[in-house]
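Think of the structure tokens as a kind of shorthand, similar to the way a musician reads notation: each symbol stands for something richer, in this case the local conformation of the backbone. In the example below we present two proteins back to back. Begin with the first one, reading the sequence and then the tokens, and try to describe in your own words what changes along the chain.
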Amino acid sequence: MGQITAGLAGFDCSTICAGGIKRLWLTNRDDIATITYGVDGEVTAITMVVGPPAGVFYEVKLKTNTKQLIEQFNVTEDGCGVTITQTFTGIAPCFSQDTRKFLQEVAAQSCCGMAVIHEENSGFVGIWGLIDDLPVRLGGGTQTDTGANLTDPNQVTLELVCNTIANGQKTEFTPGVVGIPV
């Protein structure tokens, strides 16, 4: 049986709560050898498999102010079942052959799954997709769009999705951006 053991401190006027995601990194879920957790469930270290090819997180560069992660808690009527749907969306400008290759690799990896680290504009560095058999995959909202008019954007919308349990909610990656194995 669960129990509440702490409250939420609430709003602090000195806290910066900027929205959006600044940067994003992906890895093949199978390339993570071990995960070390702290007492509050934060990830304090990741060891990647040694290669070849060695496991690394790859940065995915997307347009500024287009990246967002939404975590939707889904609760059964009796309150005993909780799942989370995590949906990341971001936009890459100008479809290219490199974009095509990236999308094909992400699509092919979706069966085995991925893990994601992201840096929020607020400074929080989060990680998700770590629960065995519940990894991140390419979402159906991924699309390429040429636009119809000369002034329309030529862009790619990337959607990543993870259906997970409550423990799979994004958690802090305490090594931060400098600790990402790239």
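Once you have a description of the first chain, move to the second and do the same.
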Amino acid sequence: MNSNSISVYQAVDEMRKLTNDGKHFSFSFMSYSETKQCSHRMVDVQKARLGKKERIEHNCNAEIMETYVDLLTGEQHRFYKPLIMIFNGQITELT
């Protein structure tokens, strides 16, 4: 990992910390549809906070997914942690 990058798991930890502190973050990730088994595009989110962690009983992918609220639209969405590409301007690496 180079000095300008952060691991995906460090990024998620930072997202959780910022959310708990009432702050927001920006990030980009690759979309993925499990039903269609394809990605459509890179998603850029300018202001977000993480949502409550889903339980495995409600979502079989809860271990590798996170929910977030897009603070500009008020919409809640999900993303797969391994597909985070950028967090607060830092490139992420899956390590």
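Compare your description with these statements about the second chain. Residues 5-93 form one domain.
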